[in-house]
Structure formats: C-alpha cells, structure tokens
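Handout, page 2. Input:
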Amino acid sequence: MKDLKGIKGKYYIARLIEEGEHEHQDFKFAISDARKIARSISAFANRDGGRLLVGVKDNGVVAGVRNEEDIFVIEQAAEMYCRPPQEIRVTAFKAEEEKTVLRIEIDRAQRRPVLVIEADGSAHAYYRVKDENISATPLMVRAWEAASSETEGVLISLSESESRLAGMLAEGPVTLEEFMLAAKVSRSTAEDIVVRLHTMNLLDFVYNGKTFLLCRMEEPEDE
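Output:
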C-alpha cells in the first residue's frame, strides 16, 4: 500500500481544474475499472501525453480519492492492461478541505501504438481528441506500427500515386475513399500508400468529430 499523505497543492490543483478537461487533461471521479483508466493512458500516450486528475468530478468539484487502493488500480491499468506497459508518475496533493487528489502523468509513447487489452481479450488503441478518448482505426494502428519498426532513414522517392496523395493533403484533410477515387487505386494499395507516407513523416491523422481523416504531418515548432 502507498501512503496517501499528499503535498500541499490546493491552489495548484484549483488552477488545473479551471482548465477543464481537454486534450492533455482528464478528470476521474472514482477508480472502479482498471481498463477504463488504461484507455485514458493509451489515448494520452498515443497522442502527446497528458494527465489524469483522480478525485475530481466531471464538473470540476473535488471529491477526493477513497484510499490508497486507487493507486494500485491505476498502476494495474498501466502495467497489466496496456501493451506495452506504460510508466506513469503518481503524485498526491491535498486540495479542498484536505481532500486528496491524485495527479497521474502520462508521457507520449516512444513507440506507438499503446494498446489496451479488453475484457474479451481483444486489443484496441485509443487517441485523445479534445476531452474524449477515441478508438483508433486499424489503419492508424498499422501506420504507427510501421513507423515504430522503421530503423533506418527512408529515401523519399514518391510514386505517382504517392505524389497525388501528398498533393491532396497540401490542400487539406481528405478521406481514404477520396484518395482512392482520385488516384484510381484499390483500398489495399491506398492503405499501403498511407502507411508509407506516415513512416516518411508526410502524413498524419486528424479527427473531424465523426471519423479520422488523412492530413499533412505538422512540422515541429522551432524552440
């Protein structure tokens, strides 16, 4: 068991709560299902990282955690239900009325995808979009796996169809079906092209509220 004697953090936690739930932050009122926590860990790890505030209701009210068992369930989620297992950082803070809030920090995964082992034995990857954990598509998972297994530099030499997709992405996000129609290629060929462009850091995925679209990879900002 871990000691729940939290450090002082009333105003710090209040500032975080004021931000609300977003791409990098999720509130958890209670910890009752390790797999639900694993889905949040997967979603943050497959995006850009984030944090869980455990003991906070969806409306921002501090309820506090029940006991040190919550930490055990969270660690179980990261180690037993995430593949590969994820390292998390747990910090306990004393918030309103001496109630304890747990801050769970999750880093962006060095190798994606981070999958969740569901109750039926299947494995699914999740991706954080605004304040939701969205199930990643099989094509996204395949693209992530290909990018993670790429060990050598990729020679950028695009075929006609690949150049067609790159040009379409320069105009804005497109669906796989739109590319298939424009390039007159099969779904299998289109998916192979998507995977290849993703490994070349030319293509990414964006959620439009209903489905994932293909988009141009954003260039990293200068520090």
